Amino acid sequence: MSAGLLVHILSKSNANRLVSTQSMSPTGIAARLARKNILELLPYRCARDDYSEGILLDANENAFGPPLSADETNGFCLERYPDPYQIPLKTKLAAYRKFNIAPANIFVGVGSDEAIDLLMRIFCVPGHDQILTTPPTYGMYKVCAKVNDVDIVNVPLTSDFDLQVDEIIKAISPKIKLIFLCSPGNPTAKALPLADVSKIAKHAPDSLVIVDEAYIDFCTPVERNSALALLESHSNVCVLQTLSKAFGLAAIRCGFVFGPPDVVQLLNNVKAPYNVNELTSQMAIKALDHVDRLHENIHSLLEQRALVASALEGLPFVTRVYHSDANFILFRLDKNAQQVYKHMADKGNVVTRYRGTELHCDECIRVTIGTPDENQAFLRQLETMYNELA
Cα separation of 258 and 167, whole Å? Predict the structure, then answer.
């Protein structure tokens, strides 16, 4: 019998949990802050919400399977729609992250970007509500805000990339539904003190504080730096994470929101029916089965980060190397940063990122930490191209 004719079996208990999640009424902060039409939304019910085991003839799938061999499908049952809520993945992730997190606290999306967009769609009335950001910061907040017709209130970081906590608190208004704090920051690479996040959350009871932790696994020890530690004590805090960075799985596009169950429920209600595909889900589960290797890779990367930072500090034309809690380093040249960046890419085959157009980042370049050979090539080309332009 071909793989395509095999009956696809999922746990009946998972199916029951999916149905009960869909039938819950939002309470708490979600009911207070979400758009009225979102709260009234009757979510789309996909076939796997009702039954997920047996002879499945309910979803118009092709039981004969794809035109691929068993080797080409790597054992995946690709003819069936995936688990719409990724319960096995959430269970593994909750156990790994700890902090008393349960699957009901987790939303799985297509990277963190899907979650950023969904949060704005759920909580911000177009043309009326606002978000707050702290530039320089991740550019997708601005993009999603523009797409959703949401104004932005900016409270810039200091020149040392610290939060202006009191200024943020002063800027909070009833229109600000989401406060985005990037920790560690991009492009700053600096982690934010949890005390600052907590203070902001306490002064913003009618806003969701979204802590974007794409790079948190490079900020060790994670358990002392992650805002996941605030979820139990702050009902208005959500945390974004991703498998694109430390887990080395950028290609599978898998990200998460950790937050109150009522917020997670609304994210599930609004998302596309099968937003995360089976290949992504299974690769994510496999990665969580190999966390020892993950930690080895992080250790190696942090060693390289220290070596690259030290080498940059030794170059006479580098005027500042910013402390990094991430897998990249932001550094400043005394001149010609944009030209050096361009020459490295075009002539030296080393691609970094020019950040000189962002606030407090004049003459700055951001470099991702690569393999030892890649890092050495970067350092050679940086010096060569700078001297050619001097």
Answer: 27
